[in-house]
Amino acid sequence: MKALRAFRLVAWCVVAIFTLLLIIGYLLQSGGGKRGEPDTSSTPAIGRPFELVSHRGQVIDNAVLKGKPYLAFFGFTHCPDICPTTLFELSDLMNELGPAASGFNVVFISVDPERDTQQLLNEYMTSFDRRILALRGTPEQTATAVKAFSAYARKVPTEDGSYTMDHTAGVYMMDANGSFKGTLDMHESREVRMKKIRNLMTGS
């Protein structure tokens, strides 16, 4: 009986401690900000300054892009599927829009400055809509660009001694002032994606 009683006591203590930890975690999560002030710590800062060079040799930064809405996404030329698929789908959408697609810019930002030289990017982009700009920079400039969009990029070694890149796959939608307006998801229907692009162009 004493052993059973001791076991129950220990079990209840474990439950009590676990419950207390859950309550503390909830309070920290919900009340992290000062009373009366909104908690903005979880709001990502997207659209901060960056400077890169296009596959045509132009210096592209926030000031150059300002004045037109634009789409931005991260990738690399050795990407086997997501990056070329996204570029092909964006090219297809731009083709459907025709001349109206000149009302916004599209930038493809390389997260692999080691392999994605300007010459390689120039060759790579011949497969897609000519209005899309591929951007690259030094490792430091690339890291700054990734942080500017609160994105993610990491080199992942492969078994053959090479590497691939793990990175944010979403397409950022930025307005003419460089403010973040949402994302374009390639898993959405074509109609939804087209509507989002048209709304971005009109500012609605």
Automatic annotation (TrEMBL):
Short name of one Pfam family: SCO1-SenC
Database matches in InterPro entries: SCO1/SenC (IPR003782), Thioredoxin-like_sf (IPR036249)
Binding site for Cu cation: 79, 83, 167
Segments crossing the lipid bilayer: 6-28
Residue stretches in coiled coil: none
Listed Gene3D superfamilies: Glutaredoxin
Domain of life: Bacteria
Protein keywords: Copper, Disulfide bond, Membrane, Metal-binding, Transmembrane, Transmembrane helix
Disulfide bonds: 79-83
GO molecular function terms listed in the Swiss-Prot or TrEMBL record: metal ion binding
Family the UniProt entry places it in: Belongs to the SCO1/2 family.
Full protein name: Protein SCO1/2
Source organism: Rhizobium rosettiformans
